[in-house]
């Protein structure tokens, strides 16, 4: 199990070492895992995500010139002028930071450093966590304004066709709660906190990272979205007459929205057996009707269920990434061992396991004092 680390001290030390001064702002934002309600947010549907304990940390300070200098704990680096904050989209990790700065209308130079424990490309919203950490760090706005900026950053400036669930839960999550989101009204979603503490009933949520990576900007996600949007625009009679795959895309969306409602009801009455069964039904729909699973995800779900899990499903956009497994605490070690053994036997990447406790939202952090790094040895402004 990979616990969630506190990367704020390391972020501050790295900023001082690489930028030559103390940061002015410190912020972090969580990754998220979606319990149920997949590929529904951009179609006006329902979803039920929780924020994770794993977070992305951003520390930053303004510059007196017009340079923007971005660094990261992965030794990735990007520099540009403020002129790069307008015009055509960039690519790579810097595009998310620059997109966030564009969305908040950032003026002037900036030094910014990023550290993260959210796995990249795993379906846990690492990109949304990065964007939400940046907008939280460099601006002081209302939660709704921060959400609008985060959505603009990823949808407009990065060009990823996300629906809004990721940014919403990263900015508005509550500890020990899931967030029931309803996108039916257009614009910002309506949200209702739903208590989520299965561990109090002897049940745990495991997040299983298959090690298979995806990217929201590689075209596959956009194709599924276009197919689903076309299917949802049809009348019931037109759906019956439509050519494959549109009827299956429509069936997934309709049934998934119903599963969200049923999961919420089951959670509220502490019926974890029913929640697990609905998780598994969601996976079958995502695999067969929406066709966004992969063999590695299917193998995790099957191995977990045969080892004693109450249910399991892929989570996130699909084509790789993570599964969520609902398991009695007494069966956790057995499930972990069986899933790992199944992956090795099939020649799949070794999976990793993250705790699925529901965490809190994006946060600005106060300075706790100097970082105790020798500034005389640090890189100076250039």
Automatic annotation (TrEMBL):
Residues 96-172 form the GHMP kinase N-terminal domain. Residues 346-382 are annotated as: Disordered. The keyword rRNA-binding does not apply. Pfam families: GalKase_gal_bdg, GHMP_kinases_C, GHMP_kinases_N. Residues 14-62 form the Galactokinase N-terminal domain. The keyword Aminoacyl-tRNA synthetase does not apply. GO terms for biological process: galactose metabolic process. Keywords: ATP-binding, Carbohydrate metabolism, Galactose metabolism, Kinase, Nucleotide-binding, Transferase. GO terms for molecular function: ATP binding; galactokinase activity. GO terms for cellular component: cytosol. Residues 264-342 form the GHMP kinase C-terminal domain. Belongs to the GHMP kinase family. GalK subfamily. This is Galactokinase. It comes from Nocardioides daphniae.
């Amino acid at each position: 199990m990979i616990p969630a680390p506190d990367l704020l001290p390391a972020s501050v030390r790295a900023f001082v070492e690489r930028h030559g001064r103390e940061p002015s702002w410190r912020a972090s934002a969580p990754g998220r895992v979606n319990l149920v309600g997949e590929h529904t947010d951009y179609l006006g549907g329902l979803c039920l995500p929780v924020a994770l304990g794993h977070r992305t940390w951003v520390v930053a300070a303004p510059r007196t010139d017009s340079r923007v200098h971005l660094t990261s704990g992965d030794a990735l680096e990007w520099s540009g002028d403020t002129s790069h904050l307008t015009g055509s989209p960039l690519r790579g990790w810097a595009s998310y930071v620059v997109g966030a700065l564009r969305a908040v209308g950032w003026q002037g130079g900036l030094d910014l450093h990023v550290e993260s424990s959210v796995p990249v490309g795993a379906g846990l919203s690492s990109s949304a966590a990065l964007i939400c950490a940046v907008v939280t760090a460099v601006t002081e706005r209302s939660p709704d304004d921060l959400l609008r900026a985060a959505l603009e950053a990823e949808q407009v400036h990065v060009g990823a066709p996300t629906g809004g669930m990721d940014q919403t839960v990263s900015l508005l999550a509550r500890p020990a709660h899931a967030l029931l989101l309803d996108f039916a009204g257009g614009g910002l979603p309506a949200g209702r906190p739903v208590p989520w503490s299965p561990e109090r009933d002897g049940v745990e949520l495991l997040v299983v990272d298959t090690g298979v990576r995806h990217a929201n900007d590689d075209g596959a996600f956009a194709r599924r979205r276009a197919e689903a949007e076309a299917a949802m625009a049809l009348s019931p009679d037109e759906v019956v007459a439509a050519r494959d795959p549109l009827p299956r895309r429509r069936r997934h969306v309709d049934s998934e929205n119903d599963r969200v409602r049923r999961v919420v009801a089951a959670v509220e009455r502490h019926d974890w057996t029913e929640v697990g069964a609905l998780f598994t039904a969601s996976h079958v729909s995502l695999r067969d009707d929406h066709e966004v699973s992969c063999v590695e995800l299917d193998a995790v779900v099957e191995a977990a269920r045969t080892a004693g899990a109450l249910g399991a499903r892929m989570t996130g956009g699909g084509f790789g990434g993570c599964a969520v497994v609902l398991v009695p605490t007494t069966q956790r070690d057995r499930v972990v061992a069986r899933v790992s053994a199944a992956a090795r036997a099939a020649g799949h990447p070794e999976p990793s396991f993250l705790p699925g406790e529901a965490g809190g939202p994006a946060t600005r952090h106060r300075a706790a004092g100097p970082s105790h790094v020798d500034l005389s040895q640090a890189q100076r402004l250039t």
